[in-house]
Write a structure and sequence with these properties.
By secondary structure, the chain is mainly alpha-helical. It contains 13 helices and no strands. The protein folds into two domains: 99 residues, Receptor-associated Protein (Up-down Bundle), CATH 1.20.81; 94 residues, no CATH class. It is elongated.
């Protein structure tokens, strides 16, 4: 079985290789056989083997892919189906590979941009824990020996340090419990909406999320329309490829308006 973090790269490579082989005039069955031999008993090799078996039994290429919904989403399948119907499957797969490659690059840039903030957060938390559990208690002994009255802020810090040292297990339970509750709330419709709203409002990352999602939507919609997918069908597919409930709801309203005769520009 695939690990999620590897599946997208595997699908990108599969699409690029199929596009190259079909563009060279290789029949689909032969192209799949070549990839099957190339991949061997790897996870993707077994998937290609099943796809090839379905094609040999007479199933269209898009239908064979559709039997693996965890790997090939509705967007991918409809693009391939449109390519089959129009007779330009090699060209469509090239376009699709280009879109998938751009998305992979964007994901890589987003991950890279998260490394430094996560490092700072981890370092800061580590420094605070070290300060409270080891440094402050040592100063507390010094203050006690001096016998002087401590300022309010210092007494507060000492109190927090003592609480963390004596009840660290309670803090751990509180954090784990909070994370569990937040995760459960995130899985509800209301919770997902609130979390997705927050994601779009975050400093820096909110703008980055909006820009990358908008760019992906534009590329995805453009590819589907160029491939011959009808506008409303393309928008409906696009709606289910957005990983943000706020934007998904906005697109749903736009689709309803376009169905009623409104223009695309008016609803976007």
């Amino acid at each position: 079985a695939f690990k999620v973090r590897h599946a997208k790269k595997e699908i990108l490579a599969f699409t690029q290789q199929m596009a190259g082989l079909l563009s060279a005039g290789t029949p689909i069955d032969r192209a799949l056989a070549i990839l099957q031999d190339l991949l061997g008993v790897e996870a993707m090799g077994l998937v290609v083997s099943r796809i090839r078996s379905d094609v040999q039994e007479g199933a269209p290429f898009s239908d064979a892919l559709a039997r693996h919904p965890k790997l090939f989403n509705p967007y991918y399948l409809n693009i391939v189906k449109a390519g089959e119907a129009s007779g330009v499957l090699p060209l469509i797969l090239k376009r699709l590979a280009g879109v998938l490659e751009e998305e992979e690059e964007i994901r890589g840039r987003i991950k890279a941009s998260m490394v430094y903030p996560l490092f700072l957060l981890t370092f800061t938390l580590g420094a605070v824990i070290t300060l409270m559990l080891w440094v402050v208690p040592k100063f507390q002994d010094i203050f006690a020996q001096a016998g002087s009255d401590l300022p309010s802020i210092t007494r507060l810090v000492v109190g927090v340090s003592n609480f963390m040292a004596g009840y660290w297990w309670l803090l751990v339970l509180a954090i784990l419990g909070s994370l569990t509750l937040l995760r459960a709330y995130r899985n509800t419709a209301t919770g997902r909406m609130h979390f997705d709203q927050l994601a779009l409002k975050l400093p820096v990352f909110g703008k980055l999320k909006t820009k990358t999602t908008t760019a992906r939507m534009a590329r995805t919609l453009g590819t589907m329309l160029q491939s011959g997918v009808p506008l409303i069908k393309a928008l409906e597919i696009l709606q289910h490829t957005i990983n943000n409930k706020v934007l998904e709801t906005a697109l749903e309203k736009a689709i309803a308006g376009i169905r009623e005769g409104g223009s695309i520009s008016a609803h976007f």
